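Hey L., structure's done. Input below.
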Amino acid sequence: MLAAGALTIAFGALMYNLYWPAGEPVDHGCGTDPPGPAALVAVDAESGELLWSRRVGHASVVVRGDGVVAVGGFGGALRGIDASNGEIVWCSDTGRGSEGGLRVAAAGQVLAFYSPDDHVVGLDPTTGTERWRTPINQRDSAVDSPGPTVQFDSAVRLIGGDVLMITDGAADASVLMAMDPDTGRELKPSPAALPGIENIAVFGGWRLVASHSPDPNRHELLLELIDTETGSQLWSRAAPGYLASLALTSDGNPLVVVVDQSGGTATTLNGTLLSVYSGDNGYLVWQQSIDRGSSGVYPGKPGTVVVSSGQQLSAFSTDTSEVQWAVDSGNPGRQRPYTETGVYVDVVYMPGQDAYIGIVTATRPYRD
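Output:
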């Protein structure tokens, strides 16, 4: 009997990847996905060892629940997958026509998504049942301020954490609502406008707001670290780079992690740097050269930060900058016509399983 795994067979000059996912797919009321290029891959946070993997058709977003990861799939389906073994345990139809239009976030003890009728819906992460449904408040949108009109259906973003925030997704982002994730009720007053946001990371009791420098000759991020319990700003600073996230030391103290390829200039350098700044004062703690193709930085296990590059994950010690492990799991989602191995597009850390679970998406071969 064949175990769950991968097998590569040669047909003349053709190399073809076959894969048997753990368990049999179950539709749970949403139907089955057509074949697609995405797979979930789970690796042990301590060693990088592959724990399990599963094809998930068409998917581009994974969020963390309580023992479950939720994956946005083809046709607007949101599936809950057991983080310990990859088994599908529930499915919710969000009403979205494709995974590209699905906005979802983990906040408090719920998984929230944005519905086509302009509501935010909170789901129980264990069962997928609906807990609340709240209409979105658009009165503070960019429509009432200078600049282009925002098309909410394509621009709304959900940002998770202890508070669920809904922004209009514009270049100068504004918060439409802040919500209590347990009840779905709007919190007032809502947070102020957040101008020029590039990304927001919420992790371990801190919120990092990163925006691009307005100077076109400086490839810098303007960083602001906020204590989510008190709402107070701990510090702000400019740092060279284009991608930022949060991490924790082994003692649970915050760090800000930035990926940089230009040294803050308008010229791309020969290498890529992973820079780590203290959460106490914003001072640089260490820098490490990493793979030039690195595309994602993910917080998780205290003392570790994980970086994705193609279909490889690398774990660095936040205390020493040393590489703890690096693993290339291949891509079990690879199949015709998606025969190229592709890249990781999203990764989450699951504390209960002490595992990183990510979506790796295969691609079609390039054709002139």
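The chain has one helix and 29 strands. Residues 1-26, 138-153, 192-198 have pLDDT under 50 and may be disordered.

-- N.
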